[in-house]
Design brief:
The complex is a heterodimer of chains A (about 220) and B (about 240).
Chain A: H1 2-19, H2 21-40, H3 48-73, H4 80-85, H5 91-121, H6 129-154, H7 160-187, H8 196-220
Helix pairs in contact in A: 1-5, 2-3, 2-5, 3-5, 3-6, 3-7, 5-6, 5-8, 6-7, 6-8, 7-8
Chain B: E1 11-20, E2 23-33, E3 38-42, H1 49-56, E4 64-69, E5 72-73, E6 84-87, H2 99-109, H3 115-125, H4 141-153, E7 159-163, H5 171-186, E8 190-194, H6 198-204, E9 207-212, E10 215-221, H7 230-238
Parallel strand pairs in B: 3-8, 3-9, 6-7, 7-8
Antiparallel strand pairs in B: 1-2, 1-4, 4-5, 9-10
The chains are: A mainly alpha (about 220), B alpha/beta (about 240).
Chain lengths: ~220, ~240
């Protein structure tokens, strides 16, 4: 299963980084989002520490959706999805491969957006870099698991780009709340231990979503 | 080599029914195909030909009845699908990848040893050796179809399901495809070819079947087919020859 997942993820990433259409759109969206929030922000009314976690996760959530939309769209034009489903690759392997490629996509957006956030909101990141990376990873795993599942369902509809956010966002809410709360604790200089309950919640959601979505995927593609 | 006629069937459709909402796409389709045999499946648009192939490829679950490959009920275990190669009127390719990357990707999915070398061999067999590094989007439709066929045969499948395989091919491409499919059949592959074109279908067929409104209305062995009279026979059954 993991071998299939790796082969599929590698193929998806080759296509994405060759065409660059999805990743460029997501990066531009993320950076523009940060700029807009920055210019809409009144530093005398709201401290950057209070605003930044919300801005960060709003930007990541919506830029991630751009990549998730493309995840199964690349399989549709010449019905390449039929080639995948008719191959001996397990359905779970296909799902995990797609989710893994989406995870790399979201991670690239995060790698570019975090320095921009630091630049705009001017807070020291070095001392919280490692726990922050943990939060980013945990949240990205949950978002990608749920997003990949709903992307596979939405892609067969005429309103895929509209339907995906409508389906996925309610499930993103608990992940984004956990991620934003734990990010806020870290940015405000609280001890990392205070973020632990939120991190545990994130971990629990990841386990449930990854397992649940992997098991549910075969039923979403059944004709 | 042809297997003896009494060998066990490789492909079995046993009383297949399939409906999409209220539309009955298949209504009790049954046939068997043994190793070295080729069933040409003719029929007008909407007769259910593609539904039969998609069911046999494990892409559709029948509403009733069973599809079996080498005795294994589909969709079944993923390993069963390793025996099947599919050619469709869609290319099943990724247009930003090269021909070699596309076929190599399929070879990896099918766990072919040395997938890159297998991809090159399959592409050379289809006369695409010179253009193998070209992105698929830059190839003509006929060339894409050849790459698609290379993709279908890269793992040496024992069952080939071809849905309008001649779609987009020029005369030379059609001839080389007929020769290639003939070679695969002679090597023991069981084959089902869905086509509108009676002449192309009969060139390969050991059996010919006509599907109409989800039912098999005629199933003849090659010996019983009079090539000259078959178009009239088909016209009588479905009302038109395309």
């Amino acid at each position: 299963m993991m071998r299939d997942a790796w082969v599929i993820a590698k193929k998806d990433l080759t296509i994405e980084f060759r065409t660059r259409s999805g990743i460029l759109s997501a990066l531009v969206f993320a950076l523009l989002g940060l700029v807009i929030f920055y210019y809409a922000w009144d530093p005398t009314a709201v401290a950057s520490i209070d605003l930044a976690p919300g801005v960060l996760w709003v930007v990541f959530t919506f830029s991630g959706l751009l990549g998730l939309n493309r995840s199964f769209a690349i399989e549709q034009s010449e019905r390449a999805i039929d080639g995948l489903l008719a191959s001996p690759a397990s359905r779970s392997g296909i799902f995990l491969g797609k989710a893994l490629a989406n995870l790399v996509f979201v991670a690239v957006v995060q790698i570019v957006a975090i320095p921009a956030l630091v630049l705009f909101y001017n807070f020291p990141i070095a001392r919280i870099a490692i726990p922050l990376m943990g939060i980013l990873l945990l949240a990205a795993i949950g978002l990608c698991a749920v997003g990949t599942l709903f992307s596979s369902m939405a892609v067969n509809t005429k309103l895929a780009e509209l339907l995906l956010p409508m389906l996925a966002l309610p499930f993103f809410v608990p992940i984004v709340i956990g991620a934003a709360q734990s990010t806020a604790k870290l940015l405000s200089g609280r001890p990392a231990i205070e973020a632990m309950p939120w991190l545990k919640l994130l971990l629990a959601f990841d386990l449930v979503f990854v397992l649940g979505c992997t098991l549910a995927y075969p039923f979403t593609i059944e004709e | 080599m042809h297997e003896p006629a009494n060998s066990s069937p490789v492909v079995e459709a046993a009383d297949l029914y399939r409906s999409f909402g209220r539309k009955q796409a298949l209504a009790g389709v049954s046939f068997t195909v043994r190793a070295g045999e080729c069933l040409a499946l003719f029929g007008p648009n909407g007769a259910g030909k593609t539904t039969v192939l998609r069911t046999l490829a494990g892409l559709l679950r029948p509403t009733r009845g069973e599809a079996r490959i080498s005795g294994h009920v589909l969709p079944g275990e993923p390993s069963v699908r390793a025996h099947i190669g599919i050619v469709s009127h869609h290319s099943l390719l990724y247009d930003s990848l090269s021909a070699r990357e596309n076929v190599g990707f399929a070879a990896r999915l099918y766990r072919v040893p040395d997938p890159d070398a297998a991809a090159v061999r399959a592409l050379e067999k289809m006369g695409m050796g010179v253009r193998m590094n070209t992105p698929v989007r830059s190839l003509s439709r006929g060339m894409q179809q050849r790459v698609s066929i290379a993709r279908a045969i890269v793992h040496s499948p024992s069952v080939i399901l071809a849905d309008e395989p001649y779609s987009g091919l020029d005369d030379e491409g059609s001839r080389s495809l007929t020769a290639l499919l003939g070679e695969l059949r002679a090597a023991g592959a069981a084959m089902i070819v869905v086509t509108h074109n009676v002449a192309e279908g009969l060139a390969l067929a050991t059996h010919a079947s006509v599907l109409s409104a989800g039912k098999i209305v005629s199933l003849l062995s090659r010996d019983a087919i009079d090539e000259a009279a078959f178009p009239a026979h088909y016209r009588n059954l479905v009302g038109t020859v395309q």
